[in-house]
Amino acid sequence: MTSRTENVTFRFREERNYSRFFSGQSLSLLGDEISAMAIPLIAIQILDAGAFEQGLLFFSKFLPALLFGLHFGAIIDKFAKRSILVAADLARMLLLAVIVILWAVGLLSLPVFLVIAFGFGAFNVLATICGQAYIPKLVPEPKLLDANGKLQKVTTFAEVSGGSVAGAVVQVLTAPIALILDAISFLVSALFVAGVREPGHPPERAEHEKPRIWDGVTFILRNVRLRAITLCTATSNFFSAMMVSLYLLFAMNVLHFTPLMIGILLSVASCTALISGFFTERGTRHLGVRGSLIAGQLVMAAGCVVLPFAGGDTIVKSLLLVASHGIFVIGMIAFMTTQVTYRQQVTPENMQGRVHAGSYMLTYGAFALGALAGGVSGEYLGIRETLVIGALGHILAAAWLLPRSVRVTDGEPPTPAKEEAHDIAS
Question: Membrane spanning segments where (predicted)?
Answer without folding.
Answer: 21-44, 56-76, 83-106, 179-196, 228-250, 256-279, 291-309, 315-336, 357-376, 382-402
